[in-house]
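Two proteins were folded this term; both appear here.
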Amino acid sequence: MQNSDASNNVRIEDVAARDSEIENDLEWMICPCCHQHNAPHANFCVACGAPISATAAIAPFERIFAEGFLLREAAFGKHTKLFTVLAVWLIFFPMMVSVIGLFILVPRLYWLDPGLLVGDIAMLFMLTWIALLLYRVTQNYIGQNQSPPDSPPPSA
């Protein structure tokens, strides 16, 4: 007895054999971060978004995804390294200081130019975002280096 598809007269065994041959012929790319199998032509991992090909961050649009992955890993990842923490501080701390300096040193004459109010709101938003990013990255690094408390033995 043969299993067949009524519309095409294609045997299910033939389709399954062809699919297994196709799967065996493909060389899967494995993500270095989450070890997920990805298609051979993929630039980014489908599970975690990590760049997995050599040309993943060359084009401007793909570079945004690669930088976003790095910031997500620094802020929310499980394995933040000291180098990553220092790099994030080196990049974003001078920006935070310059925003604070601009906010303090520029004279505020809102009744003459309402655009200054919009600029101040944008600077406060940027200051908040940078401070939260620095806090998350530092907290993530400190939290992973602390040993977990001893758990009580299981009760019988």
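Next, the second protein.
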Amino acid sequence: ATSAWSAVLVDAHQRAVLHQLEPGLLCGADGGCEQVLASSWSVVAGVPVSAPAIFAFGAIAVLGALVAADRVSAEKAAGTAFWTSALGLVASVGMLAIMLGGIGHVCRYCLVLDALVLLTTAASAFLHPRGPAAVVGALPSALPGLVGIGAVTAVGAAVFSLVVPEPADPSIAIVVIDEGDPEPQVPEGTRVLTVPRAVIPSPLTPATPTRGPADAPLQVVVFEDFECPFCRRLTRNLHAVVDEQPDRWRIAFRHYPMHTACNPGVSRDLHPDACAAATAAVCAERQGRFWEMYDALFGQEGLSRADLERRAGELGLDPQAFTACLDDPAASAPVLADARQGRALGVSGTPTLYINGRRFVGNLPVAALKALGDALADRPAPAVAPRPASTGPEETLGPVDAPATVELQGPRGPFTIDAFEASIEDGVAVSRPGVEPARGIGWAQADAACRAAGRRLCTEDEWLVACTGAPQEDTDGDGLFSESITGRAHPYGKTYDPGRCASSRARQDPRPLLTGEHPSCGTPEGVYDLEGGVKEWVGLTVDRAALQGGSYYSRDSARCAYHKEADPTETDPADGFRCCAGPEPEIADHHPGGKVGDTATAWSLPLVGGGTIGSDTLAGKPYVLTFWASWCEPCRKELPELAKMYGELDGALEIVAVDIDEVPQRGEQWLRKTPLPFPIGVDPGGRFMAGWDTRGTPTSFWVTAEGAIRQRTIGYDDKRPQVLREHAAALLGVR
């Protein structure tokens, strides 16, 4: 039965690979056996991994027949069968680990084979004439049989690879029709592809990586995930048609990783390394090597941190800059921006591609790409609405002459907003063109400067009215407005223009930032520098503190919808503010008992390894509650630093790290490599975390001995070790 089921799996593998070569297959929420059986893990040296089991367990069946014919002793046959099956069981466990940790999907057909291997192992033990315990000592006598079965398996696998090769890209015939046309009668084996009637302007921004001539008749924009096997196949097919017809094709890449950590448009974490791989591509792009990294990511297996750093070294990238970029939260902004646009366009899986504005989903074989190219070469996508051209890499024409404040109609009536990013004079916020904005200040200092000027910080929805020109709604009631905006995407219009604002500089650019020196970066209403320059603090209370707009180095992530939940004590040189005045909103009590200033709500969590911990356990003792996940790179940086601090404080401050991995075993696997000295709570999917004022990881809450939430820290950067110790010292001074 095990041998026969192995043959079924081999057939399923062949069909899965053939299916992968068919038009339209994509990575989406319904992944499973198709992706496992068509993945690169399913083949070793050109042989499907289940093929050797056909011969190994077939040989065991032959042994059983020989025992029945009294040609082989039952004792020797049972020992040989047990140890052969045991080796197969080890392989089954290894493949299960790969499905869970490497592919991200579990195939039920493979689980059936695993169960059959386990049953064969158990049956062999119980059929031993001297009982199950005897098979352990039967290894020496079983060795000749093991060698024989190994030889049969090796020869059988070799012959199999010659007789049954991996399916190749089929030379299928393609007929292309327009949507709405009657489907023609076609010969068997011919595929019919339908060109959608709907045509959209090409989802291409000036910052989108492209290759191929800008005036090519075929403009392709593809949304892909570096961990998606069907994206890999499509990439190979695109390479083939571009190599054959280089003047006809221009390829543009947009990120759409199938993981919730960097793509709010997906509901399941299909590919655990997709976000890290996407960030690696962004980091390579910063060094001018995007397409080289693109080819490397799709051309090789492995997307671990070590794999990414190794590829960067092979490509000749600056290793220190690349590593720093992987840990830079800003590097994920282009990924998130692409994912959000993809979601707005209706992308639900990868690959999704637009050929001259017509949408196609899933892998397309070479024949299909060529046929679509022939059909669409003279049917370009509609042009994006023209916008005023920039005068250079960054348009700086000197400060504009404009009023210090602008009155707008806000969500609660008329309000005024500073026309320029604020500077500070004698502790008072000032709105004035042609001066350096205040930089490197935290939320409290910005709030105090506005209050000293008789004004206040803007609320998020007021800031968005100024940037987008339209009122915004909190569509899901979570207190945030930037998740889905209406109106302008940028202060100057709907499409990003890298020359309009101070948003495309290097982080260490020595040029001064001057308020109002980019006239074309203003809104029609007369508000300047909302994009680029400095990120601007918003929020009337410390628990609503956030940064809007992006900074001078944010590039295409700078936009009206840029919103960063930030540590209020953050003092990055790219952080600034502006002030508002007008009717204030009623302060809604979001996350009661789970935000700064509250007394923490009573809580209890299960621990890794058993037991529980909660507010009762920690009563009378200050503690840090930190939320993390194994896939979160900043978390993996912060936790060892917290462990170091925990040791330095010798137990004076308790730390509880709460793992929100959907699959707790992934967190436990990481903990085995990086053991931590403090308790580890388990919160699969972040249900406990939802009661606290956080929307991502890592986020830590610093709680006094009396149970008051004193501080919240978000993210991780090079300054964080010192910041952690400062917060700990402050917390231990509160009794």
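Residues 400 and 519 are 6 Å apart (CA to CA). The first strand starts at residue 43 and ends at 44. These notes refer to the second protein only.
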